[in-house]
Task: structure prediction
Amino acid sequence: MYDMSLTEEENLMIQSVKEFTQTTIAPAVKEIDISGEFPWDIVNKLIDLGLHAMPVPAEYGGPGLSSVMSAILAEELAKGCPGIATTVGANGLTSYPILLTGTEAQKKLYFDLLMSGKLAAFCLTEPNAGSDAGAVATTAVKEGGEYVLNGQKTFITNGGVAGVYTVFATQDKSKGIKGLSAFIVERDRPGISVGKEENKMGIRASNTTDVFLENVRIPADHLLGKEGEGFKIAMQTLDKARPIVGAISVGLSQAALDASIKYSKERQQFGKPICANQALQFMLADMAIQTEAARWLVHRACYLIDAGLPYGKESAIAKTFASDTAMKVTTDAVQIFGGYGYSRDYPIEKMMRDAKIMQIFEGTNQVQRMVIAGQLLR
Amino acid sequence: MKIITCYKWALDEEDIIIDKQSREVITGRAKYRISPYDRNALECGVRFAEANGGEIVALTVGGPETAGSTKDVLSRGANRAVYIACPELAAADSAATSRALAAAVNKIGDFDLIICGEGSSDNYAQQTGPRLAELLGVPVVSYVSKAEIEGNMLRAERKLEDGMEAVETPLPALITVLPDINEARIPSLKQILAAGRKPVDPFTIEDLNLPADMIKPLSARLSTQGAVTDRRCVVLQGDGAAIELVGILKSEGIC
Result:
C-alpha cells in the first residue's frame, strides 16, 4: 500500500522547521545573500534542532529520518533559503557513504562527529573531474597502516566549514573508475587546507571552497568499503542524495509561486489586480502544476529508497524535473513581478539565481539524462 | 520542585478567514495549536526546571480536540501531560475552565508553582490564571515579564502600563506571564521523537467528580462577527492638500 499520510510526530517536525524558517532564516536571508558570509548563528541553531543530521540513525544518536521526511524538511528549509538547505543537504550527502558501506566503528566515528555539531563535506569534484568522476587525480598511497592522500578538490559544499570529509581518491589512475577509493578524513588532520570561498551567483549562504590535501595521513581503517569501490560508493551516494536537491528545488518553486500569488492579488494595473487577467492565471496554474508534479516525483523517489526498492532512475528523474521546474517557475515569478522582480530590493531575483545551481550540482541535468537513458536502454 | 504549566489548545488565528460580505468567521481551515503566550509559560517552567531541577506537568482542559495536543507540549520540554477533553468543556468560559483546571490541579497534587500565559490568543480574557489561583487559595502574580526562584520565594517583575513593579511571593504560587519573559524554543527533531514516550494522563470529569453545573459557562457567546475595515484610499494633491487633509480628519472626528 502506498501510504502518503504523515504521523503526528512528522507533522510536528514540519511545524518546527516552518517556524524555524519563518522566524530565524527569513529575516536574515537578504543580508546573507549580499554578504555571502556563512551564517554560523543560524547554522548553529539548525544544528541544535538536529536538522544537520537528519539521516543519522537513532542508535548513533540521530533522528533517523526516512528519505521522504528528509525531503519534506529540506523543502521547508528551502522555502526560506535554498543556500541553507544546501548546507543541510551536503551533510546528508556526506553521510550516505558511511550509511551504505561504513563499518560499526566508522559509523560511530563519523556520526559522533556529526552529533557533536560538526558539519561534513563530500569531496569528489576536482578541477578536471566533475561529471567524469573517473578522472579524479587525487591520490591515495598505502604506507603501512596508513593511507597518504594528495590532491585538490574543488567546488566543495561546506568545504571551509566542515569538521569531517568523505574524500574520493585514486590508487591507480590507469584503472580509471576502478582505481577510486573512498575515505573518511577528519578536518583537523595535518596537511588539509581550504582555498578561497567561491563568489557564487546564488545559494550564497552556503560555503563552497577548494580543499587541498597535502601528504594527509589517515589510518587504514578510514577506508570505506574496499579499495577500488570508490566509484560505486560515489554513484550510490549521489543516487540517494539527488532527491534532496529535487526537494530543495521544490521548496524554491513553492516559495516563488506563493510570492507570485500574493503579489498578483496586490498589484493593480488598469484598475484591477493583475491576477484578474487570464494570461496571468494560466501562468500561476502552470507553475502550480509543475511544482506539484515535481514534489510527487521527489516523494516517489524517496519512497522507493525507504522501501529498499531500485531508485536510480527515479532519483535522476526527480532531480532533473524538479530543478528544471525551479528554473522555469522562478523565471516566471520574475516575469510576474515585472520590474520589481528584476530589482534586488525584492526577493524574487534571488530565487532565480538560486535555482540555476540546482540544474548543475550533484550531477548536471545532462548527466542525469544520460543516467536515465542508460537505464531505459539497458 | 513540581511546576504545572497550563495551556489552551486554540485555533490558529492566521488560518481564520473573515467573509467580507457576511462578516462570518470561517474557521474550517484553521488548525489548533498551543496559544502563543502559553508557549512562553511552558518555556518559563522548563527554564526553572533546567536551573533548579524538577518536573513540569503541562495541563489543559477543553473540547475533544484537546486530546491531540499532548505530543506538541511534550516536545517542548514538559515531562508529563494531563488533559481533560470532553464536549462539555468545548465552549468553556474562564469560569468553567478555571474550575476544571483547579479540580485537575488538586488531583495532580502538591505543586510549587503554576504558570499560565497572560491571556489566550482567541479570547484574551486574562481571567483563567487569577481565577485558578483564587480557587486554589494561592497568591497570584500577573503581567510577569521576568521571574526567578530563590529557595521558597519567587521574585517577579510585573510590566504594567505605567511602569515596572518588583514583587516577591512565597511558593506555592501562580504566575501569568507576558511574551516578553522569554523566547519560546522551537522543538528539535529528537525532542519531537521523544515526546511519544512521555506519560500522558487523560482525566475525565467523572474522575474529578466535577458536577455539570461547575463546568457550565457563566456566559455564552451568541454570535461572532469579524471586523472588516474598508479603506477609502483618498489621494490629495496640490498646494492645499494639507489643509484639505485636516478638514477630512476633522469631519471624521479624528482630530
